[in-house]
């Protein structure tokens, strides 16, 4: 699968809430970085394909169902590298607080599978939404 096709599958499966399908897009060994917040269990690094579905299930459990808007507006592809630009709007389940953040994701694709995902977001907005 071409790099852009993999990125489009990633966006589609994310929008569908398909944690297992998202995991299927990754290689066995991955370079995964989500800005660390020790209070939020889905943040930090991951290194195995098997970590991917659990990441999404844990993240989604922290958000109010039906209260998220995820708008990917740009997919930039350069060889094996992809940059996804998006805007996320979520409601934190424990506090009921809404937060908005512009997001950039860097993906690297090799042989039709994602080897790297690095997420860049407004970590302050996320942190504030989960504070009681």
From TrEMBL:
Gene3D superfamilies referenced in this protein's UniProt entry, alphabetically = 3.10.450.50
Q: Which InterPro entries match?
A: NTF2-like_dom_sf, SnoaL-like
Enumerate the spans annotated as SnoaL-like domain.
8-116
Q: Which residues form a coiled coil?
A: none
- State one Pfam family annotation: SnoaL_2
Instruction: State the protein's name.
Output: Nuclear transport factor 2 family protein
